[in-house]
Amino acid sequence: MENKKLNLVKKLKSLDPTHLNMVIGLDGFVDEIIHVVDKRADFDHFTRIETIQKLADRIGKASGLSTNIELIPVQKKIGGNGPIMCNALAMHNPTISYIGALGYPNIDPVFKIMEKKVTLYSLANPGHTDALEFHDGKLMLGKMESLKDVYYENLIEVVGFERLDNLLTDADLFATVNWSMIPKMTDLWKKLVQHVLPNLSPRVNKPIFFVDLADPEKRENKDIIEALNVLKSFKSYYQVVLGLNEKEAVDVAKVLGVYEVPENINKSDKLKGLSKALYEYLNIDAVVIHPVEMSAIMVNGLYYEAQGPYVKKPKLTTGAGDNFNAGLVTGLLLGLEPDEALLFGMATSGFYVRNAHSPNYQGLISFIESWEAGLI
Question: How far, in Å, CA of 354 to CA of 251, rounded?
Answer without folding.
Answer: 29
